[in-house]
């Protein structure tokens, strides 16, 4: 769908937390009319309708994924089935009903529980500012295969986590700097660095708004079932403790509050 420059400018002025939804709505409506181009009038009309009926749009949660769709070359771990499984939990929990009871009929999109999945540490879907952020990870593993000292792994690592040890003729990975993106394993032509454990890093308690904060990472790497268990625990904690629409991020104080040591 083509957008005029004026329409693009106007959509940028719509609050970021509803922009994606309004954009999708504008395109749907333009397509239904048989139009190939979105104009400033389309955006303005959709914006007014959307903002007037905002509480009807609230489903209680927002689940974002990065735009990899299983095809991005940077993927550390594929998350599409995970997204479906998380969405199924979020639906079962009926968070809209919980919010209506907690906030009243005038619930807004900013009250929703926000969950985001990125398939690598580049974090295109901004998991750091969501209540629950999930990041695909692939831990690099040093194998017994001799290293040719070609230096490709060092050049590839954006986090300067790899050094080549001239004496032992092998790479050394500083695990405190490594983000488990798996790029070095993909780049290593000899197989000296290979893909090790794959899973997800989980970040909790991020938000924007008047008091923004970055999510804090739980220690360890989780498999799909582990992530789902954490999501369930977060929702249980949120439902038991959130009052008057307080976001999960506002009440989360650390792993112990969801029963993780
Ligand atoms: S988060 Fe990583 S895998 Fe997802 S789109 Fe961004 S770069 Fe690609
Ligand atoms: S996985 Fe490899 S490339 Fe990625 S941060 Fe760790 S050492 Fe660097
Ligand atoms: S570990 Fe692989 S990429 Fe790094 S220097 Fe050795 S052979 Fe090259």
Provide a quick synopsis of the model.
A hairpin with a 4-residue loop joins β6 (162-165) and β7 (170-173). By secondary structure, the protein is of the alpha/beta class.
The shape is globular
Order of SSEs: EHHEHHEHHEEHEEHEEHH
Please give the radius of gyration in angstroms: 22 Å
pLDDT < 50 runs, ≥5 residues: none
The biggest sheet, with number of strands, parallel, antiparallel or mixed sense and barrel status, is: 5 strands, mixed
CATH topology of the largest domain: Sulfite Reductase Hemoprotein, domain 1
Strand order within the widest sheet? 3-4-5-8-9
What class would the helix/strand composition place it in?
A: alpha/beta
Structural domains: how many: 2
Distance between the termini: 49 Å
The percent range for helix content is 25-40%
Q: Any guess at the CATH architecture of the largest domain?
A: 2-Layer Sandwich
User: What would the average pLDDT be, to the nearest integer?
Assistant: 91
Strand content: 15-25%
Structure commentary:
The chain has 261 residues and is of the alpha/beta class. It folds into two domains: 1-52, Orthogonal Bundle (Helicase, Ruva Protein, domain 3); 58-139 and 178-261, Sulfite Reductase Hemoprotein, domain 1 (2-Layer Sandwich). 37% of the residues lie in helices and 18% in strands. It has ten helices and nine strands. It has helices at residues 5-12, 16-32, 40-52, 54-57, 80-92, 95-103, 152-156, 183-187, 224-241, 248-251; strands at residues 2-3, 37-38, 61-65, 113-118, 132-142, 162-165, 170-173, 193-204, 216-217. The strands form three sheets. A five-stranded mixed sheet has the order 3-4-5-8-9. Strands 1-2 form a two-stranded parallel ribbon. β6 (162-165) and β7 form a beta hairpin. The longest helix is centred in the C-terminal third of the chain and has 18 residues, at 224-241. The radius of gyration is 22 Å and the shape is globular. The N and C termini lie far apart (49 Å). The mean pLDDT is 91. It binds iron/sulfur cluster (3 copies).
């Amino acid at each position: 769908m083509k957008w005029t420059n004026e329409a693009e400018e106007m959509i940028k002025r719509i609050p970021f937390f509803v922009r994606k939804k309004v954009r999708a709505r504008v395109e749907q409506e333009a397509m239904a009319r048989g139009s190939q181009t979105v104009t400033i009038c389309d955006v303005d009309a959709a914006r007014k309708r959307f903002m007037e009926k905002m509480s009807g749009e609230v489903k209680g949660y927002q689940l974002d994924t990065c735009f990899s769709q299983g095809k991005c070359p940077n993927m550390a771990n594929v998350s599409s089935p995970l997204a479906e499984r998380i969405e199924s939990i979020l639906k079962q929990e009926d968070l809209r009903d919980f919010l209506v009871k907690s906030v009243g009929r005038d619930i807004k999109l900013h009250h929703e529980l926000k969950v985001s999945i990125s398939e690598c540490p580049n974090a295109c879907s901004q998991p750091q500012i969501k209540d629950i952020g999930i990041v695909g990870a692939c831990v690099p593993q040093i194998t017994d295969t001799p290293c040719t000292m070609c230096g490709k792994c060092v050049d590839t690592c954006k986090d300067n986590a790899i050094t080549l040890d001239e004496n032992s003729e092998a790479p050394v990975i500083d695990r405190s700097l490594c983000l488990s993106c798996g790029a070095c394993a993909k780049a290593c032509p000899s197989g000296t660095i290979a893909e090790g454990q794959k899973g997800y890093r989980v970040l909790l308690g991020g938000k924007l708004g008047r008091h923004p904060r970055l999510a804090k990472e739980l220690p360890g790497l989780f498999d799909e079932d582990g992530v789902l268990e954490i999501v369930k625990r977060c929702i249980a904690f949120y439902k038991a403790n959130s009052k008057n629409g307080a976001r999960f991020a506002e009440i989360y104080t650390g792993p112990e509050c969801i029963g993780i040591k």
